[in-house]
Amino acid sequence: xxxxxxxxxxxxxxxxxxxxxxxxxxxxxxxxxxxxxxxxxxxxxxxxxxxxxxxxxxxxxxxxxxxxxxxxxxxxxxxxxxxxxxxxxxxxxxxxxxxxxxxxxxxxxxxxxxxxxxxxxxxxxxxxxxxxxxxxxxxxxxxxxxxxxxxxxxx
Amino acid sequence: xxxxxxxxxxxxxxxxxxxxxxxxxxxxxxxxxxxxxxxxxxxxxxxxxxxxxxxxxxxxxxxxxxxxxxxxxxxxxxxxxxxxxxxxxxxxxxxxxxxxxxxxxxxxxxxxxxxxxxxxxxxxxxxxxxxxxxxxxxxxxxxxxxxxxxxxxxxxxxxxxxxxxxxxxxxxxxxxxxxxxxxxxxxxxxxxxxxxxxxxxxxxxxxxxxxxxxxxxxxxxxxxxxxxxxxxxxxxxxxxxxxxxxxxxxxxxxxxxxxxxxxxxxxxxxxxxxxxxxxxxxxxxxxxxxxxxxxxxxxxxxxxxxxxxxxxxxxxxxxxxxxxxxxxxxxxxxxxxxxxxxxxxxxxxxxxxxxxxxxxxxxxxxxxxxxxxxxxxxxxxxxxxxxxxxxxxxxxxxxxxxxxxxxxxxxxxxxxxxxxxxxxxxxxxxxxxxxxxxxxxxxxxxxxxxxxxxxxxxxxxxxxxxxxxxxxxxxxxxxxxxxxxxxxxxxxxxxxxxxxxxxxxxxxxxxxxxxxxxxxxxxxxxxxxxxxxxxxxxxxxxxx
Lengths: 155, 544
Ligand SMILES: Cc1cc2nc3c(=O)[nH]c(=O)nc-3n(C[C@H](O)[C@H](O)[C@H](O)COP(=O)(O)OP(=O)(O)OC[C@H]3O[C@@H](n4cnc5c(N)ncnc54)[C@H](O)[C@@H]3O)c2cc1C
Fold this sequence. Notes:
- The structure holds two protein chains of two kinds.
- Chain A is mainly alpha-helical.
- Chain A has one domain (about 10-120).
- Chain A contains seven helices and no strands.
- In chain A, helix 1 (about 10-25) packs across helix 4 and helix 2 (about 40-45) crosses helix 5.
- The model of chain A has no long low-confidence stretch (mean pLDDT about 95).
- The interface between A and B is large, with 61 and 74 residues.
- Flavin-adenine dinucleotide binds near residues 46 and 103 of chain B.
């Protein structure tokens, strides 16, 4: 298959990233959450790589190295181990990879609803904020002056 | 080295103006607004665009992601064509800014404290750095004017702060602030609702805050006082002209050693000459020294206005550790303006400590789910794999965060120079930053981190951790063309005029002598208004 060099990811990279994403943020029936490899979430991730695209491609190249050349060929346990080895390395590449996955995962409607959030932009509806307990300030109000006035004579 | 450039070169030459301001940010807007009533012909050249409220991230579902893209705080990552790159590899603190109408205020957090009276007298009081040639009380009327134009939410009566009258009620304490306040009272430490440049009521035609939380990457509601919606509309109505997408390459001088105008690239990339009687630099603590150094000529071989050799030196960036903790129940999360309150308990010098000067503690609310996940991933709080969901639920909407705003003292080796290789999109040499955190600052940081950890513990938080430098980019760019009485030891005089070039003024953060332990914008703008007034009072003798 010929690859389009301008595409966000090659088909190999996309296949590996999807498998890796499932290890990063797995689906959870307990919490009612999809995994980061869910079709809609994954499409969002690939379409939103933006400034992190090159770093993500680099990270995937490292993953293939760890996997001995072909991440897709590994069985489930070995693939998970290779993924965790990569992710455990930290540094700017892993930051970029993590950001690319998380920024899309945590805007998915199902994920937000499972967290008790309304899936919508903050504007224009805004949010409610309770005033808080202002009586707590009474303990500070009566204090002696704390700021140093060095130019008292001028006033 | 650039040759002196005169109006008679081949470049298209614009009509001469009385006053040319470079930069439409916090200080450029304030000086333009104040000078407008002179009826002089005033022009501002700004390299960036107007940002419409509909462009801000909080309009869309991708609001959290866009703070890491075209609204990132780093010009290097943001990389709009209106940005210029900055080589900050040799600095543990990175440079944050925004280039557009409003400058840094477009994406600032709007925490709005003033410098304190003691901040202007650090040599006299504490034997370090230098005193300023002006004092707090000279600036006080300008602080008040600035508060009025800006619209500041806060509460009078703070025993740790000079008397002042905020123009609107404070932002709500919320659940997060209430937790902090209880903890502070338990410890017996000072706290007070912060002055914040956010409209808590309708103010001067601006809508009130609806708790979007996204103060930093721009306020879609227009409740945050960025100068594109405060000073600029009034200045434009009063006749000031503002040209966007105009990037100044250098300030030119004439045979008398006076500034004659600027060479700039217009929006179509055409190099033009703009003559002016007076030039005012408002390009910030990195952009201004860059421009002065790029304006070297046969007469000014070390850069313009640089006979002292101090242009670019004494860069102060405000080390700003951030101390995180997580509450045992939900708090405000991303509901409400980010900053809630401050503490000045450790602001003034205490000889019993192992450092001089002090810091403000800045108490923040939390953040949205994506940003919580990303920052927690970076700090290793949030694991990948099976534990991810369980741990995320202990973080989401539970964040407590205290910033330690440390006073940074001036040191000549902390500096802005021109990068020998890096250039912006117009081929203009880019700035290079060399900066180290001083021993005094390190000790202050550790003191603040320890106090913030005690507060978080008292507030019932666990999982306490600290980012000493990784998230340490407050975007405070100060000190690189300092103010002073002596031409050998400073770049501008006590009212912002360059010692070496008598029709060249600087009004931005670069003129700061010391940095205080506060966010700078309120003081930057008060200084700009004071310098504008000084110009107005001396119009007949301005160049003497
Ligand atoms: C993420 C972030 C959060 C912040 N939070 C706070 C806060 O809570 N409180 C606070 O007090 N401060 C805060 N700040 C700092 C605040 O933004 C700055 O202190 C303030 O904007 C500086 O004002 P200034 O006039 O010195 O420069 P700026 O506001 O930076 O304006 C400089 C302008 O000059 C323009 N310019 C530069 N070079 C050229 C050129 N060659 N040609 C044409 N135009 C040019 C730039 O494009 C820019 O618009 C924050 C900053 C950032 C980045």
